[in-house]
Amino acid sequence: PGIGKYVAIDLARRNARTILACRSRKRGQAAVQEIRAATGNPEVVLRLLDTSSLASVRAFASAVLREESRLDVLVNNAGVTGLPFAITSEGLEQTFTTNYLGPFLLTNLLLG
């Protein structure tokens, strides 16, 4: 597992409601089940998020603010490297958007 999964496991072990923000529903749901089994914490949930899409970031932040009564910790851990140059449908360079713009926007939207 990567750093993000280890952080999620640690938070879940501390009985925190833990939201996994993942691009892939299949891989995210597998991680949810693994973390629930390893920690006994049923409050590990999946929400879809693609930080290369600012629309996805806005939708994710809106849902979290609407559905959650509070947010205590945010761990921005998504990142890519070595991708070929590509422009997103929003006209932004994909690696820069995934690694910087998406997490920056997410943080600012969740601050309220």
Description:
The protein is mainly alpha-helical and 112 residues long. It has one domain (3-111): Rossmann fold, CATH 3.40.50. The protein has four helices and two strands, in the order H-E-H-E-H-H. The chain has helices spanning 3-13, 25-39, 54-67, 94-111, and strands at 18-22, 44-48. It has a two-stranded parallel ribbon. The model has no long low-confidence stretch (mean pLDDT 96).
What is this structure, in a nutshell?
The chain has helices spanning 3-13, 25-39, 54-67, 94-111; strands at residues 18-22, 44-48. By secondary structure, the protein is mainly α.
The amount of beta strand, in percent, is 5-15%
The percent range for helix content is 40-55%
CATH class placement:
Alpha Beta
Tertiary shape: globular
What is the CATH topology? Rossmann fold
Uncertain regions spanning at least 5 consecutive residues: none
Q: How many helices does DSSP assign?
A: 4
Q: Any idea what the CATH architecture is?
A: 3-Layer(aba) Sandwich
SSE series: HEHEHH
How far the N terminus sits from the C terminus, by CA atoms, comes to 32 Å
Q: Sheet bearing the most strands, described? A: 2 strands, parallel
> How many distinct folded domains?
1
Radius of gyration: 14 Å
The secondary structure category is mainly alpha
Strand order of the largest sheet: 1-2
Keywords: Oxidoreductase
InterPro entries: NAD(P)-bd_dom_sf (IPR036291), SDR_fam (IPR002347)
Family: Belongs to the short-chain dehydrogenases/reductases (SDR) family.
Protein name: RDH12 dehydrogenase
List the helices and strands and how they pair.
Elements: H1 3-13, E1 18-22, H2 25-39, E2 44-48, H3 54-67, H4 94-111
Helix pairs in contact: 1-2, 3-4
